Protein: ABC transporter domain-containing protein
Amino acid sequence: MCPEGMMKCDPEAPSSQGSVESAIRCRDVCRSFGKLKVLSSLNLTVPQGRIYGLLGPSGCGKTTLLKCIVGMLKISRGHITVLGKPPAFPGHEVPGKMVGFMPQDLALYDEFTISDTLWFFGRIHGLSSKDTEARIDFLIDFLNLPQRTRLVRNLSGGQRRRVSLGAALLQKPQLLILDEPTVGVDPVLRAKIWQHLVEIVKGGQVSVIITTHYIEEARQANVVGLMRNGRLLAEAPPDTVMKQHSTATLECAFLQLCESSDQTLSKNGSTPDGREKEGSQSSESCRDESQPILSLGSELDTEEPKFTVDWKVRARHMIPKWRNIAALMIKTMVRMKRMPGFLCFQFLLPAIQISLMCLCIGGDPLGIQVAVVNNETSQSSLSRSLLSFLDNTSVHQVALSHSEAFAGIRDGEYWGVLGFGKNFSSYLMKRMVQTRVSLEVAEGGSVHVWQDFTNRQIALMLQNKLQEAFQAFVKNKLGSRSYLVSLPIKFEEPIYGSNSTDFTTFVTPGAILSITFYLAVGLTALSFVLERKEGLLDRCWVAGVSSMETMLAHLLSQLFVISVQIILLLLFTLLVFKIPNEGSLFLVILLIVLQGVTGISFGLVISAAIDDEQSANQAALGIFYPNLIVSGILWPVECIPYPLRYISLALPQTYASEALRCIMYRGWGLSHMMVWRGFVVTLGWNTFFLILATVILKLRT
Ligand SMILES: Nc1ncnc2c1ncn2[C@@H]1O[C@H](COP(=O)(O)OP(=O)(O)OP(=O)(O)O)[C@@H](O)[C@H]1O
Structure:
């Protein structure tokens, strides 16, 4: 029978497993982290409608056991049933609505108000607006919470703890799991929390398991389990434990139990701290020690119950729930709303980055100092005329003597020296009108240039400016006959692009993709790593949100951010900096969005594999520069030597940048291999990253 006002009972729950009287049954449970065995053949029974105080010193494995009970961690041996079925069993609402979980770290969103927090969990549990409002009113009164509009970050430690408890109680769960709710709490509040718990279980419909290492406070529990080194030393009502050991306090009884346990362990040859390394104990001895010295009943039915599941239920269980995705997306939007400055920064950052790139990279250097040694004195000389065609904004001419000019270039004051012989004008005229001239005339009629080539860009710019000046000079002097002194190579109008195409034009498509990709990587990795560190991901998971739903919700919210970023990015690129786009704007946007999604997927891989934000940042930064350099974004991929070129071509942005250049500058569509290849590679990486993130998450459970 379902208790009134509680969750609906699952009609598919097996009736023969004897779980009616026990809310939780753990039998022969083992769990290790690497070689450290944290839970050793542990047996525990939480009776229905009772408070179970799980006691034990720090590090004895209480949190690990609770995580196993809610299905957050898999057990390596034994079996657990929670409210009739194993945790995370398809179709079972543990994790989910049946269980209220208050983790040890408070796991609350700082930017939320009390009301936002409770609404968030209400949405996840599928409560109607009316029910949620009613529960919020009740909990604010019941837990003596401050005004519902107060931000969590402005609450005191005790108030936060009560909000966290409220979030666990919100949906009237059948099972309440509280991990050290009283740690760091003043005695008055501690007494209040216990008083609340006693009230909650009064009807016999709600069961509570609460961990604490303040042993004495658990005298208010109906049953206590005394845990040490991953084992349960005793499980009985507090009075029975004390009576059995003839002690006045639970603490003394616990000490006696520890001593007896140590004696048993030393007989069996275990390590002094009582923990065993994985595989160091035979299953026989493991089973012996698993029997608590004092237990609720003599019959510990260790036989594993069998559960079957209909494929339809399994399929329904696998399909992401829109309700959870919507709740998570609303959560992200509320958080964004509470951080408008950060949101604007997020939106504008790509546009700022691309603007800086267009302003600072690829343009002509300005005001380059060049020394001019002119041995012609006449004002009407051709040397002066030629110099007048030199672009004054880029090249600043300084007239000097031969010795001063060379001393200056050696001292780094000038980037070049232009030398004109004293007969430059007459020799140049001869060169231009006569077909056969002597070497002396050719030399004397040339501008001699000495350059500082330590800065290639400036040196090439100077050469380019001199050639442009000479062409303008010749055109001015010879008019239609200027072709006589031109090179016998004629550059016609380019098929694609224009003669004035600069380096900025080459870099921009790759830079757009790289900026979008890395911002998505950074934001995703940081948000997930921080949420996991603060216990928020775990808390949502216990509330019934699957990893897949978390990922999808993040993807959809991030897509909104990426869309705004891309609109601003393209507005600046195309309209302000006039980077040409000859192709389909739709394809341009699609490719950038897909690269953003690939960035999100890569961010998920980082956050799945790495636990702290510093290492996640280092991983993202460590990959940023090599990828930027090797992807052919800054310099043509054709310059990369083999076999590094193969690596370059396999990276997510190499073919994608090429595809974007082809769309924007050649106007190509998906029928061209160089375009569709960019899309295929992007989608391939996307899929690979998503699979990798899922596998890592699964392996780490
Ligand atoms: N993810 C993990 N990886 C490796 N070791 C872990 C991990 N989680 C817990 N442990 C180890 O397992 C042991 C039990 O930890 P657990 O958090 O369950 O203890 P606890 O009894 O809840 O302690 P406390 O009362 O201080 O919270 C500790 O030695 C801890 O270092």
